Amino acid sequence: MFGQVLKSSKFIAIGVAAAAGTLALSACGSSSAGPSSSEGAGTCPTTPINVVATTNVWGNIANQLAGPCAKVTTIITSPTADPHDFEPDSTTSQAYTDAKLAIENGLGYDAWSDKIIASLGSSAPQVLDLGTTVGLSVGDNPHIWYSPTYVQESAAAITSALKGLLPDGASSFDQAASEFKTNLGPYLDEVASIKSSYSGTPIGSTESIFVYMAEATGLNLTTPPQFMTAIANDSDPTSQSVATFTNQIKDKQIKVLMYNTQTDGGLPQQMLTLAQSSGVPVVDITETLTPEGASFQQWQLTQLQNLSQTLASGK
Ligand SMILES: [Zn+2]
Fold this sequence. Notes:
There is one protein chain. By secondary structure, the chain is an alpha/beta fold. It has two domains: 2-183, Rossmann fold; 197-313, Nitrogenase molybdenum iron protein domain (Rossmann fold). Helix content is 48%, strand content 13%. The chain contains 14 helices and nine strands. The strands form two sheets. The chain has a five-stranded mixed beta sheet, with helices on both faces. Helix 9 (185-198) packs parallel to helix 14. 47% of the residues are buried. Bound molecules: zinc ion. Zinc ion (ZN) binds at residues 84, 143, 207, 209, 232, 287.
């Protein structure tokens, strides 16, 4: 598996001296304004490494999977800014210089990361492109962390990458992987619960963020795909897709509107306002961890519980 991951990436593992990085990173704290670092409790059986992740979704998952064997620095942490519009600065590339492993979402979501890697030449960290790892390519929906299947496949790929870099930490990584799997339980149960109660229920979404979760929960996401993809790509949906979506909301053909609060642009807000005035319930969802300090599981579970309660009240 690990070999495939490396071969499928454009970038090849390159040895990196990261010893000097620890000091620079420790000053960053956990502010939304810049990269944020954390490392797990306990003792690593070997010397820990520095890992960088493009968003705090993958950073939090990597942190859970690395435990005490890595310091994970996350680049995108703000729950209010739109990650699709992120632009790196000098603190961003410093985190890469210090890292042995860079975890990317891929699929064009964090293309800026590829540019940093390319600019670092021989001092670039090894890259793990999760979108490629789960078998997708640029042009596919990049929101893979909204798919329980892709999340578990990505976690396995992260564990493999960590083991490859720190073979002496293998038992520690196995233990962390097992705990991670256990901690996914309530989230996976909630997905299954929604599926058993509400499969086929028509819903809407202001952006393509909810496509994979709609599939997992069996909900019928009726919003024109062209609308959702255009919003994600910061382009203009066709007037036809806007009209179709507008009618679906106005005529209450959907039971709930999933509203991505982290999307820039006037059209999603217009649809939110229309849903509110039409009496269509709205459930907020976000691109990155909300609140910023939540774990992946806490964050996803809360959103799914909100959805479940909203669907229950509209039954
Ligand atoms: Zn998005």
